[in-house]
Amino acid sequence: MSRPRLIDLFCGAGGCTKGYQRAGFYVVGVDNRPQPNYCGDEFHQADALEFPLSGFDAIHASPPCQAYSVLRRANPDAEYPDLIAPVRDMLEASGVPWVIENVPGAPLRYSVELCGSMFGLGAISGDGIKVERTYRELRRHRLFETSFPIMQSPCQHRAEALGVYGGGPTGRYTFENGARKDRYGRRGGYQGTIAEKREAMGVDWMGAGELNQAIPPAYCEFIGRYLLAELRARAAA
């Protein structure tokens, strides 16, 4: 049996794509920038809002998040694209099951929030000799609005968090380990090295900048199982 076809709009290097592939989908990525490290089955450099959606069994979209992130609070006069409403209208008109992903604070409806701690994501740092080995967990909360039902699970925060963001120094504590905020209003904490970020995210094919923008594949592998169930239910109806 052939794999269902899913299109990943605003795909980046393919963190979501990899999760859907693991769930059993054939994934086509679309992004307006070249993505030489994209991991999907096909890639098209194009405007995600104009790419034809016919011929796909499901759609995932990750519109730009800057309009809803901490960067917005730090730069209230800056202009960022606010694409969730037009993306939603486009997906609703498609007639197939769909998913929209974005950051906490984005205007998503009926969404679930996923966290790396739900999937046991994290990394161990230190060599155990000069530096004590420490496990830090990935949190990286993200919202998913879906056109089909999904069960919400609680976070499982148990360890110190490992940060995957920004372009500053890595492998150390930032902003006095949360004692003060940076200019974007972030509290800081431990900023992982590239190796730690890759281990925590479950990603080994991305560069530093791509990692900082990516979604852990485990999130969309989880979503993808519910999406497959929805497709089976529609086929049986």
Can you lay out the helices and strands and say which pair or pack?
Layout: E1 5-9, H1 15-23, E2 26-31, E3 42-45, E4 58-61, H2 70-74, H3 84-94, E5 98-102, E6 111-114, E7 122-125, E8 134-137, E9 142-146, E10 160-163, E11 172-174, E12 189-191, H4 194-201, H5 208-213, H6 217-236
Helix pairs in contact: 1-6
Shape: globular
Ends distance:
19 Å
Level-1 CATH class name:
Alpha Beta
How is the biggest beta sheet arranged? Answer: 7 strands, mixed
What is the gyration radius calculated from CA atoms?
18 Å
Number of E-type strands? 12
Total of DSSP H or I helical runs spanning 4+ residues: 6
Helix content: 10-25%
What portion of residues belong to β-strands? Answer: 15-25%
Q: Which sequence of SSEs, written as H and E, runs from N to C?
A: EHEEEHHEEEEEEEEHHH
Mean pLDDT: 87
CATH structural architecture = 3-Layer(aba) Sandwich
Strand order of the largest sheet: 3-2-1-4-5-9-6
Q: Briefly note the structural class of the backbone.
A: alpha/beta
CATH topology: Rossmann fold
